[in-house]
């Protein structure tokens, strides 16, 4: 990722700067970084996950909303991530919203250039957000999902899933790996 700012900015300053600007960006410790381009496998997997989450919301008639990339999650005053997708529950956000305040599920599809960030920096950051119950890291090239789940005692349970269903509770979502990878 390329550094775009040298002077530290807050999340609010970052959002004002990023609004309407083409491209995707993230803020780490007050520094804005441009996100790299995506491969076709990455984009297809993002679409498959979004479609699976939308199907779950509809089938279970949940008061939840699925958002694609482009939405921001505030980690702290100087850090904001833009996941490949997320789910939040409750009232629908206003159309002008850039920031999702209480996501429940966030996911990232691995890219060669950012996999170390997704597995380390973002993992630590996302679980600083109290509402996040699940963080999924999806490999677009082989059927592997790393599922990080917040437990009642606030510890994080990590599972490497290669087949079967992933139950995402709260929300009650079920993701079948076979369906995700056959759709991508």
Could you explain how this protein is built, in words?
- The protein is α+β, with helices and mostly antiparallel strands and 184 residues long.
- It is 26% helix and 33% strand.
- The protein contains four helices and 13 strands.
- The strands form four sheets. It has a six-stranded mixed beta sheet with strand order 4-7-8-9-10-11, sandwiched between helices. Strands 1-3-2 form a three-stranded antiparallel beta sheet, with helices on one face.
- A hairpin with a 4-residue loop joins strand 9 (134-139) and strand 10 (144-150).
- Helix 2 crosses helix 4.
- The chain starts with a strand and ends with a helix.
- The relative contact order is 0.16.
- The mean pLDDT is 91.
Topology:
Layout: E1 2-3, H1 11-18, E2 25-28, E3 31-34, H2 40-60, E4 64-68, E5 73-76, E6 79-81, E7 85-89, E8 103-109, H3 115-126, E9 134-139, E10 144-150, E11 156-161, E12 165-168, E13 173-176, H4 177-183
Parallel strand pairs: 8-9
Antiparallel strand pairs: 1-3, 2-3, 4-7, 5-6, 7-8, 9-10, 10-11, 12-13
Helix pairs in contact: 2-4
């Amino acid at each position: 990722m390329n550094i775009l700012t040298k002077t530290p900015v807050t999340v609010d300053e970052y959002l004002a700067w990023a609004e309407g600007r083409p491209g995707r960006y993230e803020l780490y410790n007050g520094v804005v970084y441009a996100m790299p381009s995506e491969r076709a496998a990455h984009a297809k997997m993002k679409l498959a996950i979004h479609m699976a989450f939308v199907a779950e919301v509809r089938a279970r008639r949940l008061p939840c909303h699925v958002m694609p990339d482009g939405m921001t999650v505030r980690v702290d005053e100087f850090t904001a991530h833009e996941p490949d997708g997320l789910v939040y529950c409750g009232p629908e956000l206003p159309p002008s919203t850039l920031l999702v305040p209480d996501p429940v599920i966030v996911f990232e599809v691995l890219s060669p250039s950012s996999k170390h960030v997704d597995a380390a920096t973002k993992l630590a950051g996302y679980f600083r957000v109290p509402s996040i119950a699940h963080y999924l890291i999806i490999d677009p090239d082989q059927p592997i999902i790393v599922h990080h789940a917040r437990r009642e005692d606030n510890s994080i349970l990590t599972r490497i899933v290669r087949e079967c269903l992933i139950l995402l509770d709260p929300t009650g979502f079920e993701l079948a790996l076979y369906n995700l990878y056959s759709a991508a």
